[in-house]
Amino acid sequence: MGDGTRHIGTAERRERLALRQRLAGAARAGSPEEVAGSLVALHGTDPSTVYLAVGARLADAAKTVGGTERALYEDGVLVRMHGMRHTVFVFPTELTAVVHASTGRTVAARERSRLVRNMAEAGAPDAAWLAEVEESTLAALSRRGQATAAELARDEPRLKEQFAYAAGKSYEGVHTVSTRLLRVLGVEGKVVRGRPLGSWTSSQFRWAPAPEHPELDTGVAQAELLRRWLEACGPATEDDLKWWTGWRVTEVRRALAAIGAEAVSLDEGTGYVVSGDTGPVAGPDEPWAALLPALDPTAMGWQRRDWYLAPELRPVLFDRSGNIGPTVWWNGRVVGGWAQRPDGEIVWRILDGEGVGGGAEAAIGAEAERLASWVGTTRITPRFRTPLERELSA
């Protein structure tokens, strides 16, 4: 910047990432809730991502499945629900109110309006009818504790009603009230994703009542969410913050001002950290390797990723929609990808060999063995598949 603003270079950003993202060996966490608290949110669109992201960061990876299920479904200290960018995340239950007020309410209003409009266009019952069905559905879910859409439809048969969608258009179809209404209730923070019907990799799930939470002021909630995220991921640019939160740039700037964020110089321009976080950090004592899953919160954490991911690797590590696949990390940067074969073997490939010698390959191999040891007989296929993952798993 040329005005005395401190510059944080790529090397230091990678050191911050190693420690704050719980990836270096000495920085690993003791529990899944500690992992989620450190990262703010874990991508939950693909259920297996949550467990794989936790396992990569636990000191005792053997506790991954049991510990994560306990935190989600028994202790209730983690919750899986809609959040930023209209995406499903797992985050600490204490953040339910913050996430809902900062990002959920705007999306929820839009989704409900769209549902009511679509039903009206199809000649389906009106908003008053929908409100009756909603009230009855929430009461049934409260009685059951957790339930699938089919189970709720047995208690409230009107959930089975269908209506035409986008008649006459190329994407026309028939929607069921249960599918659309439960989605709206999820975005509104009234219901959350409960236990899966199968194993921890299953995409079929039950619904559960959302944890009770106060209604916060939007500005207050946005400031708190941004503060927590910058503590974990700072420095970050306005583009990074706008992309991760899904907010307008005016909202990002208002939240930055509210928390007194400090500007720093980055290789790609101006970045921001929380107040008092401009000083240098001590990096990890030892080199480190990690095998992170598709949609991992670190790999997907920033919009501008050149400081940890070489642009030439993107064609094989991302799908066409911009979802990142399983990645191999060495000392703060992506150097390759990995996959699981049908027989359970974890295989990996180095794509960027700069600085990756025998010691690095040994460390990466040890991480592959550590992953295989707790995954066991479970077979993992990412929901969004990438060219390298498909090739390696074949």
Overview of this protein structure:
By secondary structure, this protein is an alpha+beta fold. The chain is 42% helix and 16% strand. The protein has 14 helices and 13 strands. It has helices spanning 10-20, 32-39, 47-55, 64-74, 96-121, 127-144, 149-155, 177-187, 218-233, 238-245, 249-258, 314-317, 358-375, 387-393, and strands at 42-43, 78-82, 88-92, 162-165, 173-176, 191-196, 205-209, 262-266, 269-273, 289-292, 327-330, 333-340, 346-350. It is globular and about 65 Å long. The model has no long low-confidence stretch (mean pLDDT 94).
Number of helices: 14
Shape: globular
Strand line-up across the major sheet: 10-11-12-13
Largest sheet: 4 strands, antiparallel
Low-confidence parts, pLDDT < 50 over ≥5 residues?
none
- Mean pLDDT across every amino acid position: 94
How far apart are the termini?
Answer: 49 Å
- Proportion of helical residues: 40-55%
Alpha carbon gyration radius: 22 Å
Structural class: alpha+beta
How much of the sequence lies in strands comes to: 15-25%
Instruction: Spell the H/E element sequence.
Output: HHEHHEEHHHEEHEEHHHEEEHEEEHH
- Beta-strand segment tally: 13
